[in-house]
Each structure stands twice: as C-alpha cells, then as structure tokens.
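Weekly modeling sync, notes
Attendees: S.R. (lead), two postdocs, one rotation student

Agenda item 3: backlog of single-chain predictions. S.R. asked that every request posted to the team notebook include the full sequence so nobody has to chase files. The rotation student volunteered to paste the first one in as an example of the format we agreed on. Action items at the bottom.

Example entry:
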Amino acid sequence: MQKPLKLPLTGIITPLVTPLLDHNTLDVNGLERLIEHTISGGVSGLFILGTTGEFASLSYSLRIEMIERTCKLVKGRVPVLAGVTDSAFQESLNLARIAADNGADAVVLSPPYYYKTSQPELLEYLTRIMIQMPLPLFIYNMPVHTKVMIEPESVKAASEIPGIIGIKDSSANLSYFNNVQYLLKGNPDFTFMVGPEELVPEFVMLGGHGGVNGGSNMFPRLYVELYHASVNRDFEKILPLRQKVLQICATIYSVGNYGSSYLKGLKCALSVMGICDDFMAEPFHKFKKPERTKIEKLLDDLNYKELLK
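Predicted structure, as returned to the notebook:
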C-alpha cells in the first residue's frame, strides 16, 4: 500500500528534465544517473513531466515510460510527483491512473492550456476532475504558459476540495505569495512551493515550504543547503549560496537569445557534466558547438566540480 505523503511537503523538489536520445527515445541510462544524482544530493522529492520536463512536447508513450521508469528507479526513496497537465480532461485522468498504478505519490496539474478559463470554470474543472482522481493533487500556477493565473481566492477554494494538497507557484510574484499565504492561514498542511530559484530564500523565510527548482538537476546540494540556511535564517550561509544561484540564473540559463534558453542551458550543462544527453524535444534543438563551449566555460566559472562534492 502506498505510504501517504507527510504534509506539508517541505524542502527542494527537483523538476526533472526528461533525458532524450532522439524525438521519441528516452535516455534511460541518463535518467538513472540523474535520479541517483538528485536523490544523493538530498532533495525532498522529484517532479516529472513539468515545464522543465518538456511534457507538452512529449508523446503519450514517452510520458508513460517516464512515469514507469522513474517510479521503478526511485523505489520509494523520495516522493514522486507526476505532471498530468493536458488540454484534455480525460488524458489528465489517464496519466494520473498510470501514475497511481506505478506507485507515484501525487500528481501535479496546471489549468488546461489553449482555451483561457475563468476562475469559476477553473474551480468547476478541479471539482469534477478530483471526483475521479486516484492520487492527491498539487495545482500548478504557471500563467506564462497557460494564460490563466490561479487567483489567491481560487487557491483557497481549491484547498477545500478533497484531495488537493498543495500548490506550485511559478508566477515569480511575492505579493501573490503573501495574499495566498494569508488566505491559507487556517490550513497549515497545504503545501506551498515556489518555482523561481531567485526567490527561494525570501519565500522560505516568509513561511513558504520550499522550492521546485530546475537548478537542482545540476547542483542538488547547493539548493538543499540554501533551503536549510533559509529555514534557519542563517544569513552568513544564505548570501554566498544565493549568489551562486543568481550566477546560475544569469549565465547558464541565459546563453543565446531564445525563449528556451533556460531549458537548453540546463540540459547542455547536464550533458557537459556527464549526467544525461541534451537532446531537446521539438520544436527546439540542443545547443550547437559555440554555445556548448560557452556553457563549458560558465560551468568552470562556477567552479562546478566543487559544487558536486
């Protein structure tokens, strides 16, 4: 029987990249190395098939394989959260059932993309889907991609729907956090995680539960240490750790003039580090040699081998 999640979930959750060898082939060996790398780095859980995992560009067969292999490789050592966002209601449920059958601990769901939903429509959607949802659910506020902001009042209303246990917010808005936190003050077990890495110290010191940070694919210990320093308000540790995170954001994620620079830089860095392949799902492609050379230099500037110790 699946062990229930301890709530609220706290710490650093790694939104795993999806290692690929080609457009429809998983880099299985790379996935295993990535999972062992992140778990050994002390992360509190893994989130697969999110934005960093390129879920919207993957075939259903690839998504299913990613769920099956990740759950098998993790072996219950940390919680596995499976992204089930889709434009089709039934496909989200299909993925959730596969996640449940393979031992995932929870699912993560954004508002269905393409059509812009109103707040009442979104709450009706969540109410209807939770009737059939086989696992606890985290809502995922990602307005830049879904065109829908889950308003603070809607987060509170969603927190009262049975089975919805938390939110991942990628709006990069501390005012939003403050409003949501105030409205949730009567529900301390409802998990509140933030995506943007630059905000983790402020977010955690203000009462947030942790971060779902792409950089923890590369340097899990750095992000875990930053989280713990923030919990303890240890500013002597926070400042240099945060500076490293800001350096990563300003360099690795910013090579080339692409909307996809974050993903390309992250995957390229993981390839340079020998963890997994950097093949990108369509419509993107991996960095070519000049950009890869830049990533190599930027990793050296970070003294990345020290960060891996």
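Discussion: group reviewed the output briefly. Residues 12-236 form a domain with the TIM Barrel fold (CATH 3.20.20.70).
Action items: rotation student to repeat for the remaining queue; S.R. to check formatting next week.
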